[in-house]
Amino acid sequence: MSVETGTDPTVVNGETTTAASATAPTPSSVTMTKALNQALRDSLADDDTVLIFGEDVGRLGGVFRVTEGLRAEFGSNRVWDSPLAESGIIGTAIGMAMNGMRPVVEMQFDAYAYPAFEQIVSHVAKMRNRTKGRVSLPITIRIPYAGDIGGVEHHSDSSEAYWTSTPGLTVVTPSNPADAYSLLRESIASDDPVVFMEPKSRYWMKETLSLPVSMAPMNRAQVVREGTDVTLLAYGPTVRTALDSAEAGADHGLSIEVIDLRTLSPFDDETVSASVRKTSRAAIIHEAAQFGGYGAEVAARLTERNFTYLSAPILRVTGFDVPYPSPKLEEFYLPTVERVLDALESWDWEL
Amino acid sequence: MSVETGTDPTVVNGETTTAASATAPTPSSVTMTKALNQALRDSLADDDTVLIFGEDVGRLGGVFRVTEGLRAEFGSNRVWDSPLAESGIIGTAIGMAMNGMRPVVEMQFDAYAYPAFEQIVSHVAKMRNRTKGRVSLPITIRIPYAGDIGGVEHHSDSSEAYWTSTPGLTVVTPSNPADAYSLLRESIASDDPVVFMEPKSRYWMKETLSLPVSMAPMNRAQVVREGTDVTLLAYGPTVRTALDSAEAGADHGLSIEVIDLRTLSPFDDETVSASVRKTSRAAIIHEAAQFGGYGAEVAARLTERNFTYLSAPILRVTGFDVPYPSPKLEEFYLPTVERVLDALESWDWEL
Amino acid sequence: MTIDVPTTGRSLPQLQPISFIGADGRLTDTPTEGLRIPSDATLTGLYRQMVLVRRFEAQVTHLTRQGRLATYPSAAGQEAAEVGATTALAPNDWLFPTYRDSAALLTRGVPVAEILAAFRGDWHCGFDPHEYHTSPAATPLATQTLHATGFAMAAKLKGEDAATLTFLGDGASSEGDTHEAFNFASVWQTPTVFVLQNNQYAISTPLREQTNATMLADRAAGYGMPGLRVDGNDVAAVFAAVSAALARGRNGDGPTLIECLTYRMESHTNSDDPTKYRDTEEVEHWKQFDPIDRLEKYLRQTGALDDAGVEEIAEAAETLAASVRDAMNTEAEIDPRELFAHVYATPRTALAEQQQVLEAELAAAGHA
Amino acid sequence: MTIDVPTTGRSLPQLQPISFIGADGRLTDTPTEGLRIPSDATLTGLYRQMVLVRRFEAQVTHLTRQGRLATYPSAAGQEAAEVGATTALAPNDWLFPTYRDSAALLTRGVPVAEILAAFRGDWHCGFDPHEYHTSPAATPLATQTLHATGFAMAAKLKGEDAATLTFLGDGASSEGDTHEAFNFASVWQTPTVFVLQNNQYAISTPLREQTNATMLADRAAGYGMPGLRVDGNDVAAVFAAVSAALARGRNGDGPTLIECLTYRMESHTNSDDPTKYRDTEEVEHWKQFDPIDRLEKYLRQTGALDDAGVEEIAEAAETLAASVRDAMNTEAEIDPRELFAHVYATPRTALAEQQQVLEAELAAAGHA
Ligand SMILES: Cc1ncc(C[n+]2csc(CCOP(=O)(O)OP(=O)(O)O)c2C)c(N)n1
Ligand SMILES: Cc1ncc(C[n+]2csc(CCOP(=O)(O)OP(=O)(O)O)c2C)c(N)n1
Ligand SMILES: [Mg+2]
Ligand SMILES: [Mg+2]
């Protein structure tokens, strides 16, 4: 298994370390799950108004164990299992936030955020604007998303396009443990509601680092590999695909720059446009279907802003325009290194 | 009030007539509401399995009167008021469709389709694929959408991006009475589930025509005004904006082609790409916010397919990336002829 | 086979709605589940407030018919439920109203102009929720029931002595969110009172097509929560029932469902045409249950109210109506740039760019 | 003040679960609401099917632990509810199951390989719903309750003599869709039976954090629908109650809610760790209520079953287990092009283009 790099990384024995803060303990090997767990723990410890509730986040510690141990440590007034109803979870989180709390709630899989769609789109996203800023809703909605884990139907959706096309929401997705920690803490501290999307297939990815760690701010994309010929844009689970493609592309003599978007809304135009102006070619990779996917926004806005710099159209290397398939068909659906390289080849390099 | 043209139109006294079929009665002035109503009536009459239910669609005939008179004519076993619950409406429509019916349901305003999001996205869109085509769901979900009617909060959303980014759904939106009739009948007859989006601000638009009328098939976009310099793409409420812009542009010496997309998913690449290759410049106009809006898909795919033909980036002239505003601010939010012309001016015409 | 669940207080509400003062202005002999009739002083205050809100509704409806407001849903006929429930709140409690509950907002002290801002199209919510301990009026049906539950949960976790009250309609009772709110509130034992105004219609849909239950208050038993059915046109009953429920909640005994039987005398909103779905006879029939008439009769009998009192209150109502007209004559200042100001706490570059587009458009059009 | 709503049959279910055969294998003296114990022949058939499905669950769970299936939620311990309810269906009725209800699918006649297709990751739904009058097993909780209601409504409108049965869990009962289904079914008086398998847990969440009601069957009263609580481990009670409810439905008398008290003996799925949230004592405690043991005792008493009969059934179960292993040893044919084949009835050019991309990839990789 390959490992992505964080910001300012030092690669040690195939694992990535991140510059530890002055007071931090010795670096150790940390999974994304563990990093998220620690971010929640530290947020609970630092701020009394942080609350965690949802389906099975208490005793069980969540089906992915992201909230493991937190109920025991902070008590069932801070961390508890709610009845099984997603609209209920988001709706009550709204009320708690109106009353001064910072709820962090989990939707068990992203297809199970859909019952809460109205509460998220009509209230979470709009309350602040509705009240001219008088009521803010500092809610963090954690959503494990995307596939490549052999999940049965409804367990592998990538729902980011629904959230990114909704004004009022901030949408964040880490691709590595250090970012997972840092971005989650920042999301919980934010006065804006954040949809925090956790790439399921990366939960068990390890990095050597010491927590707490503070990475680039959440509104910044990060160049995670430098290159001069092509810019590959990726987020969450596909950052690894992009890095692997860059590695493979190097064998073909292509110098590929890889950017981890980290935050999908807002979009970091500055960082990404700078890269695209340098390379003049870019592709965006995501697992979700292509039609109307997040990649459409990326391609459209990069083209609007950098048209004269482009030697070729921005490509989208994505899942197909079909519902997410069953496990045995995943490999044919998901964007692979081969699909990325084929796409790059489709450009007329003589242009 | 300006009037858009249908396919193959003859403009008579500022109103549009459509070639009447051989048996059709004398043309008369028909609103979009009336055309939709007649399409429902004719579908009910022609096919016993067609059922209409939803909130207030029975006695009242719907808050926009689209189902007016149908309960009286066909009885409350064919047309009836359901309890007030959108997930319930879509969920029971699914069951009815599994049992051989063709339900046509109304979501009262598009923000009120959100409670049904899970049923639409996880079942309506996926049932056919889930069962390898053994179970089809010929459901038509009518959604009055978009603004410009002075509606209070939640009454003017444009939710098309949510549906178009969901594989398995067909998304249709008429801009004129003749298409409204023809597309709705085709949608109801389709074995695929259709999200049929009705532009509220065009409900009262009149055309002179005789019903029944059969227009271009629903998977085809239509060139509704020919031009050579620029292609304006529009749908539903913004077709009028595009036509007005073309008129205004003509005063500035611009020859603007206007395409009414009619169906948002699937996208008619053939018609639209042909136009864009001819004009080399295009803009897409919609009311919804820009970020992640449907226009992103349009811009991305046109650029992918026609990059070498483009003299300028595809532009998006849209609402701003904010929640739909209250009535007194609508005029500042909505894309206007001026905003369209400003956008066209932003291109470097010397390129 | 034993399962560890509560088995206390398992019963359905009494069939006869709880009522103190009958339509004839006399005391009824309906059992009132241990509730006590409010004092004459309280009732006089409730009377006054009902007269005020009725005048308010009439004035606003009138202005809406003249096209001065974008839309308006009147609660005429429902004054007892609106005023009785809202008056029972302590200042620290929070109210979670709907679009139908301007009368409750007024009772809660929200200024007229701030109530009307939404309906005249100025801005979605015209008042500061924190100032009035009142949530923005919810339009997406039933969603606010969950907000009220969550707010109360936070109050409980913080050990605050506050309860929440939310209004919902008979139609809204069919939405999934209502069920989820009842359930969360009862499992968490939050201090929440659900005041279900059963006004017999959801727009055009009559109650019998909304539910097959004998009464909507029967729902409560399924959540292990007390449910009451009250005569929603008897402000004494509403006030007493809601006060008791709020006290229960603050006392740590959890939520209560109170169904107020009432009737929507007006059309759904100004753009509705009720003749399509109900007879004028039905409307006439309900006039005899008018909440204000009966209380006036009653208070005149007890001597708490006389001609002078009635007159004084009528004048106050006219003053209020005048202030509504004044408010509508003052154009609110609309700043188009505010479109961008409140979407996020954290500024966004792309939004600032869009604001510049708008500002250029405004400048070109000669706007300030 | 009178409101036109039904007032008949307004009551809460009896506290004691309806049960014919107690955990000791003897007849109970619990009141059974007019239901009658099924014949020995019927009970013997139910016994046989319960033994088969238990063996099926054990075999599949075993294969899943070996990593041969992607995931598997076993209904071990819930055989009486699964088999009793499903057997009560007529062939023309439709079943709307969940992920937990493979035992019901098996009882409905769906072939083993077609049941397992979903869990081995071949395709979402492996069988033809029309062939078995059985909907795809629903994973999004409670959504299927509405499908069952709508299907039954269509049957009613067409005058078909068919009812629908849907399973749901204690956890799923908290979802908004459950409420909407109960309400639609009762308002429309559809022939729908809601079989709520209360197995005490929603993954890790115990019943007492799911509801504050005395019993989930108490919900029914709030919809004007009959509700029953049965001992879900007594297949005689389940079969009798569901049969009666289906008959009611077909007779035009509307839906019924039946809560079956039972227990999930296994972990939620193979990837769950139940030691985090429940004691082994609790699991041990529930073993004494085993649905198969008690029926075997009872039928041996009545003489309907003897050693030979038990032996024969055990052998049939082994044959079934072998067929499960066989099915798993046969690799299903997976055609990647099918990704595109079933999304729409109407072909799409853009999808055909994407299929070409995949085909080129497959060709490059040397795929057939
Ligand atoms: C989720 C949702 N669906 C539909 C609507 C449209 N709508 C507004 S009011 C109304 C009827 C509500 O009836 P009821 O709950 O009885 O309240 P009332 O208007 O009688 O006060 C409907 C259908 C809405 N606001 N929200
Ligand atoms: C809408 C939705 N939310 C969450 C889940 C994830 N999930 C799957 S099973 C389950 C627990 C269900 O419990 P219950 O209804 O009691 O059924 P049981 O598993 O006990 O049979 C959860 C939370 C889901 N499948 N659907
Ligand atoms: Mg009502
Ligand atoms: Mg359960």
TrEMBL record, chains A, B:
Residues 1-28 are annotated as: Disordered. Keywords: Oxidoreductase, Pyruvate. Residues 30-205 form the Transketolase-like pyrimidine-binding domain. Its EC number is 1.2.4.4. Its cofactor is thiamine diphosphate. Residues 16-28 have a biased composition (Low complexity). GO terms for molecular function: branched-chain 2-oxo acid dehydrogenase activity; magnesium ion binding. SMART domains: Transket_pyr. The keyword Metal-binding does not apply. Residues 1-15 have a biased composition (Polar residues). Pfam families: Transket_pyr, Transketolase_C. GO terms for biological process: branched-chain amino acid catabolic process; response to nutrient. This is 3-methyl-2-oxobutanoate dehydrogenase (2-methylpropanoyl-transferring).
UniProtKB/TrEMBL annotation, chains C, D:
It holds the Pfam family E1_dh. CDD domains: TPP_E1_PDC_ADC_BCADC. GO terms for molecular function: magnesium ion binding; pyruvate dehydrogenase (acetyl-transferring) activity. Its cofactor is thiamine diphosphate. GO terms for biological process: branched-chain amino acid catabolic process. InterPro entries: Alpha-ketoacid_DH_E1_comp, DH_E1, PdhA/BkdA, THDP-binding. Residues 48-329 form the Dehydrogenase E1 component domain. It is an enzyme of class 1 (oxidoreductase). Keywords: Oxidoreductase, Pyruvate, Thiamine pyrophosphate. Its EC number is 1.2.4.1. It comes from the Bacteria. This is Pyruvate dehydrogenase E1 component alpha subunit.
